[in-house]
Amino acid sequence: MSPATTPARTLGVLALAGALCLGGCSVTAAPKQASNPPASTSPSSASLPLAAAVDQFRDGYASGTIVLQLTDTGGAPFTVVRAELDDPRFAGGTVWTGSTDFTTGQTTSLPAVAAAPRCSGPAGTASAGTADRSPDGAPSVVVRLADGTETRVAATDPHGVLARIHTEGCFAAAVASVAALRLDDALTPGPTNGTAVLTLRVEPIPVATPPLSVSALTLSSVGGTTLLDEDPAQPWPRGVVLAPGKTVRLAVRPARCDPHAVAEDKVGTLVPLTVAMGGASGVVKVAAPTALRAAIYAFVASACGWSAG
Questions:
Q1: In terms of Cα–Cα distance, which of 161, 108, 162 is closest to 134?
Q2: In degrees rounded to 5, what are phi and psi of residue 296?
Q3: Which of 50, 54, 75, 235 lies deepest, with the highest CB count within 10 Å?
């Protein structure tokens, strides 16, 4: 058979087969051979070699920023563009976005501002069932790669960061629901050299939620910071009822006279107050406004005898 006659003879064979099948047989075309798909350049979501942990650095205390630490435990390189904490103690929205490449053995800390805590206890405080850990076990991090695939990685919390933030956040929310605690912009001179005075004010909330008398708030104690300490000659007040309109004066002195104290400050202008409310007690951190923060730096520099600049 010559190549020129092959198509015609093939058509004839098919026509004969069709005629013979009028009685009820069927003809099935031969399946096409599947071609091999191209190899993926990134791990699948089911096999993504990642370990996750949650932590917080000192410079994140004031802003409520935590870090989602991801470690590449092996396999092909990949690029992460989004990571989100998933923990029932917190509302959604603890998210990092960007683009970072991972290679085997690499650990990268991705910063994300912690979302608002979910609080179910009295007056918005943390309930006993969620104070120490997530009801469903360990938190997890949902990771998205540059190719659009996603995976969920169980996360450890070796320093109990999430439990602490949840408890503190719920207590602070309860206090904030009945009163606003704020520091004045100005730092006034103290009665002796090397001292100054912070002014804490208690401002009522127009509509407290839930309704609770502001007189139920009591300032148990004030804590020092890396920049400010108590003046022994003027002890910080204790057991003060924080009624609406109350003003509390806090005499301070430098906690340390080291230029690095200001140059490397992270939490020195975040004043911790131990407050009692409705049978519960907790720490509320009051941040110095921008103008006061600058005044504190200048005060420490002047009291210590060196230039803040």
A1: 162
A2: -65, -45
A3: 54
The structure's pTM equals 0.69
Count of CA atoms in the C-beta half-sphere (13 A) of 69: 13
- Supply 160's token pair: 């109990």
pLDDT digits (tens, 9 = 90+) for 22-60: 333 333 334 344 344 333 334 444 568 899 999 999 888
How is the chain classified by DSSP, letter by letter? --GGGHHHHHHHHHHHHHHHGGGS----PPPPPPPPPPPPSS--TTS--EEEEEE--GGGTTTTEEEEEEEE-SSS-EEEEEEEEE-TTB-S--EEEEEEEE-TT-EEEEEEEPPPBP--SGGGPPPTTTSSS-TTSS-EEEEEETTS-EEEEEEE-TT-HHHHHHHHHHHHHHHHTTEEEEE-S--EEPSSTT-EEEEEEEEE-SS-SS---GGGEEEEEE---SSEEEBTTBPPP-SEE--TT-EEEEEEEES---HHHHHT-SSTTEEEEEEEETTEEEEEEEEPPHHHHHHHHHHHHHHHTS---
